[in-house]
Amino acid sequence: MKIAFVLGTRPEGIKLAPILNKLKDNPDFATLVINTGQHADLLDEVLQTFAIEPDYNLKLMKPNQSAELVVHEAIPVISAILRKEKPDLVFVVGDTATTFTGAFIAFHERIPVVHVEAGLRTDNPYSPFPEEMYRQLVTRLATFHLAPTEQNKENLIKECIDVRHISVVGNPVIDALFYIHHNVPPAVTEISQYVKSNKKLILLTTHRRENFHHLTQIHDAILEITDHHKEVEVIFPVHPNPNVRNQISKSMREHESIHIIDPLDYASFTYLLKHAYLVVTDSGGIQEEAPAFNVPVIIVRDSTERTEGVEAGTLILAGTDKQIIKGTIENLLTDTSFHQHTAEAVNPYGDGQTSERIVEWLKQYLSRHQS
C-alpha cells in the first residue's frame, strides 16, 4: 500500500515524522513525502533531524507569501504528483494551507484522506485565522479522522461525521517530543546561557496574525513582569515571517532580562521548553508539548481549540488583555501551590504511543482492503 504524506510547515513535519519513521521498516507500506515548502528552512531542519528525505519538494515559500498563494500554487503541482503516483491514501495533519490543499486535491482525485489531529474546534471562523476554517473544511473532505482526544471525537460526531471513521489515537507531537528529548542533543553551548538556576525562565512565543493588534498589550505585560520580578528571564524566539518581526519590533522594547533570538532548531527549543518555569504563547502545538514536561502554559489568545488542556488545568486561557495576562503570570510566579497544581495536571494530548496506534490502524485498514 502506498501512502502519500503532504506537509509544508514545521509543526506538520514534527507531527508526521514519528509516523513516517514507524513505517520505514514495514514492507507492507510504501511512503511518499510531498513537501510544499511552506516553511522552507524551519521544516528542512525538522526533516533532517528525523532523517526524512522528501520525494518531492515544491519550494513554494516566497517573501511575504499569503496562505491563499500557497493554495493557488500547490494545487496544480500536487494534483499532477497524485495522478502520477496513485497513492492509496493521503495523510494530512492539522490546519494549515498545506493541509487544506492536500485534502482538497486528494478529494478531487478520489483518494481517501486521513486527517491527523482531527476534530479540534473553537467554532469561531476567525480565531485562529485561517486555521479554524481550514480544520472544518478538511473535516468535510477527509474520509478518516484520527483525533487526539475524546473531546475531539465528540466535536466530529456533533458535525455528523460517521463514528466508524473516527479513531482516538492521541497527538504524535508528544511522540516527536520524547524522541527528540532522548535521542537528539540540543546545541547546548548556544542556549545554556539562558538556563540559570537562580532564574525563573519564561518562554514567550507570539506570531498569530489575528493577534497583531494585541501584541502591544501582550508584550507590555511581559515588560512589566520583568521590571518587577528580577528573578525572571524571558526567552523570545521570533518567527521568521517578516510581518511578524515588524510587528514585534513595534511592540517590544529592549530589556536586559528579555532575550529576543532567532528561531531555534527543534532539539534546542525542546531543551528550553523542558527548563522553562512557564510558557506564554499564542501557538497551538506548544499547548500540547509543554504539559508533557510539566510546564504551565498561559495562552494569549481569545480562544483555544485545545479545550481539554484548559479543563485538565495544564493550560490557562488568559486572552489578550494586559492586566489579565500580567495577573496570571504573577499568580504562577508567586503562588507555589498554584504553579505546582498546574504543572502536575495530567497532559490530555498523548503518552508518546500515538504513531504506534496509527500504524496499527493502517494495518487493520490494509487487512480489510486485502480481504
Strands, helices and their partners?
Layout lengths: L1 E6 L2 H14 L6 E6 L4 H10 L6 E2 L9 H19 L3 E5 L3 H12 L4 E4 L14 H11 L2 E4 L2 H9 L7 E3 L3 H12 L4 H4 L8 E6 L9 H14 L3 E6 L4 H10 L6 E4 L4 H10 L2 E4 L4 H7 L4 E3 L7 H6 L2 E3 L4 H13 L1 H8 L10 H17 L1
Helix pairs in contact: 1-2, 1-7, 1-16, 3-4, 4-5, 9-10, 9-14
- End-to-end CA span: 14 Å
Number of helices: 16
Question: What is the CATH C-level name of the largest domain?
Answer: Alpha Beta
**Low-pLDDT stretches:** none
Percentage of β-strand residues: 15-25%
Q: What strand order characterises the main sheet? A: 3-2-1-4-5-6-7
CATH topology of the largest domain: Rossmann fold
CATH architecture of the largest domain: 3-Layer(aba) Sandwich
**SSE class:** alpha/beta
Q: Taking all residues together, what is the mean pLDDT?
A: 90
The biggest beta sheet reads: 7 strands, parallel
Percent in helix = 40-55%
- Number of separate structural domains: 2
Quick recap:
With 371 residues, this protein is of the alpha/beta class. Helix content is 47%, strand content 15%. Helix 4 (97-108) runs parallel beside helix 5 (131-141) and helix 9 (215-228) packs parallel to helix 14.
List the main descriptive attributes of the protein structure presented here.
371 residues, alpha/beta, Rossmann fold, 2 domains, 6-stranded parallel β-sheet
Protein model, in words:
The protein is an alpha/beta fold. It folds into two domains: 2-171 and 351-370, Rossmann fold (3-Layer(aba) Sandwich); 183-343, Rossmann fold. 47% of the residues lie in helices and 15% in strands. It contains 16 helices and 13 strands. The chain has helices at 10-23, 40-49, 67-85, 97-108, 131-141, 150-158, 172-183, 188-191, 215-228, 242-251, 266-275, 286-292, 307-312, 322-334, 336-343, 354-370, and strands at 2-7, 30-35, 56-57, 89-93, 113-116, 144-147, 166-168, 200-205, 232-237, 258-261, 278-281, 297-299, 315-317. Strands 3-2-1-4-5-6-7 form a seven-stranded parallel β-sheet, with helices on both faces. A six-stranded parallel β-sheet has the order 10-9-8-11-12-13, sandwiched between helices. Strand 12 (297-299), helix 13 and strand 13 (315-317) form a beta-alpha-beta unit. Helix 9 crosses helix 10 (242-251). The longest helix is centred in the N-terminal third of the chain and has 19 residues, at 67-85. The protein is globular, with a radius of gyration of 20 Å. The two termini are 14 Å apart. The mean pLDDT is 90. InterPro entries: UDP_GlcNAc_Epimerase_2_dom (IPR003331), WecB-like (IPR029767). It comes from Terribacillus saccharophilus. Residues 22-363 form the UDP-N-acetylglucosamine 2-epimerase domain.
